[in-house]
User: What shape does this take?
Amino acid sequence: MWRLVISRLGAGLLVAWGSATAAFLALHALPGRVEDILAGDLDYPGLREAIAAEWGLDRPLWEQYLGFLARIASGDFGTSYELRQPVARVVLAQLWPTVELALAAGVLALLFAVVVATLTSGRGRIARAAASTLELVFASTPVFWLGILLLMAFSFTLRWFPVSGAADWRALVLPATALALPTAGLLAQVLREAMERALEQPFVVTVRARGLGELRLRLRHVLRHAALPVVTLGGWIIGGLLGGAVITEKVFGRPGLGTVTLNAVLSQDAPVVLAVVLLAAFIHVAASTLLDLLYALIDPRLKAS
Assistant: This one.
């Protein structure tokens, strides 16, 4: 088990190093001087000289690269010259609203998928067809369109939830639902097919012969065997939730990385954009590494191998 943990952590660190290297190369491959790119639209005396000194642009490229990696490893993403404050402070100040939205949407999507797949797997054709149609509609509907529909129904008409902001839990319900439904539609389809394959395995006959109820059979035994395909999609799900959160935050007027990123792009605040891109890559790498380790807990055969 320890060999598996070490190998997965090593692979995750390697991918994180590759992401940081790609960001460094992309920054230097862009047309124009690096200090002009980092300065964006700003132009006041001494700015570019200060940027060159802060980023060590007067040193050889390999020294700049090592310094860049050292700064990223220490959490120093430079300074936002547009906002006149450290990039890490700008990003961390808006990180939790995005994480909160993505976590809430992920939990809702997983609950929806488990309930629908458990109730419809191995059932009649009508129930499966109805569930498949609903899942297809959710999976193919854009997040922003779902958000607009939810706002029209539950904010403008019924006035159950606020239109924008992040004041309390009520302001989280509609954004999380809009972000969760497309993911839930795909997860439910994958999970139901996996559960139907698991229901055909010999162990199901043995468990039923012991008198275990159908619902407990599905939740305690079949669901565990069907969880591997869902874990396989974990990296894609996390990336989709983070990417969808950017759009969802704008539709519902929520604070978060989406607002920060959009403002940084519009104002050409390159250090902030670079930090958000690297942060998203690191989160994806960390989540994928944890999911690889979770594989061994779900399927003991992987631990043995």
